[in-house]
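subagent[fold] <- orchestrator: predict structure for attached chain, return tokens only, no commentary.
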Amino acid sequence: MAKPGERSALTAETPSEAAASTRMRPPLAESRGFAIAAALALAFGGIVVPVLGWCAGVVMVLMSGLWRRAEKLIALTLPFVVAVLAAVCISLITQASADGAQARNPLVPASYDLWNALVLLAVVLIPASGLWLLWRLRRR
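subagent[fold] -> orchestrator:
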């Protein structure tokens, strides 16, 4: 039995073991694998599990430390900014073509055509933002 102040042979560590124990592994959110999983969850999580998969991807991207704040902001907001701008354009085109005095022009798309295009745009832009994050991760 060891006396107070003495180290027993079982608890004594060699210098290399002490150095190894002081080196800590980086947290999971700082690993490259986590960042890849986060970008893929952002890109395709909403397709696999609608809404919840995308929300999980957003949380994972925000937790990851391998991207800059500006990169995260661009990836998370750009699809919605484009969607809002497209919705404004759609509403302006719909209002301009809704004049009852003129005959309907078959070359101007109907409002439902434009809204369907907006949904398609969202389906393309959200995965593109996740893939862009993967592209930004390639050198880190």
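orchestrator: received. Logging for downstream: The chain has a mean pLDDT of 81. The chain has five helices and no strands.
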